Amino acid sequence: MSVQNRREDRSLAFSRREIRDLGAAWIVLSIAFTIFVGRPAPLANHPGWAVQLLLVCLLSVGVAFMLHELAHKVTAVHFGQLAEFRADYNMLGLAVLGSLAGFIFAAPGAVHHVGRITNRENGLIALAGPVANLALVAVFLPLLVFEGIVWRIGAFGVFVNAFLAAFNLLPFGPLDGRTVYEWHPAVFAGAFVASVGLVAGVLLTIGFPI
Questions:
Q1: Do the domain assignments include residue 19?
Q2: Known catalytic membership, residue 69
């Protein structure tokens, strides 16, 4: 079967399970970051602040995660793959427990794709997620000219997306960087250096937005 035919056989669709998993990962991950940033006692004592911080995390951390995974899916489908996101509920639970203990470790799930594919296509699918995060930095950056909650959404969005791009491009284990490196070391090097440089620039200009 040709590549063209494979592309025609696939369409961008979402099963009920996938929608449920995406929604659960978005909400639980945002709650975990809210607890980690705000800390349990202050959040319990200031419910208005808790709601505001949850909104910030939903629109920054949640969007960063969601569009990272959707970029993988869209690219995989473009290359004729069957692709669906699957949440890891054990890791989501660990994220919440960790946030209560004062640390955050987020591995909410992944897009799984199947079908005949070339090494280049697989590399581009892996690269799509970090590239989406790098693009989102530019989307959130203009929000920094405002004040209050809009600034906080922008600052969280810039920091989290820059960090996610750099972290996922590490060339180890199941991270995107390993797949990109195995496909094209030069492309990997360029993307990784750019993402790490961006993280450094964010830290020097706005610092940790927490």
A1: yes
A2: yes
Domain extent, residue 48, equals: 3-205
2: left (phi over 0), alpha (psi -120 to 50) or beta: beta
- When divided into structural domains, the chain yields a total of 1
Comparing C-alpha atoms, which of 67, 64, 147 is closest to residue 106?
64
Q: Is residue 210 part of a domain?
A: no
Catalytic residue among 69, 121, 147, 182: 69
Band of pLDDT at residue 11, cut at 50, 70 and 90: confident
Digit-coded pLDDT (tens) for 126-153 = 999 999 999 999 999 999 999 999 999 9
What is the token pair recorded at 152? Answer: 């906080």
Structural tokens at position 87: 């949440």
Q: What is the DSSP letter of 143?
A: G
Quick check: is 66 in a domain?
yes
Please report the pLDDT score of residue 88 as a whole number: 96
* Contact (Cβ atoms closer than 8 angstroms) between residue 35 and residue 94: no
Opening angle at CA 166, ends 163 and 167, nearest 5: 80
Mean of the per-residue pLDDT values of the chain:
92
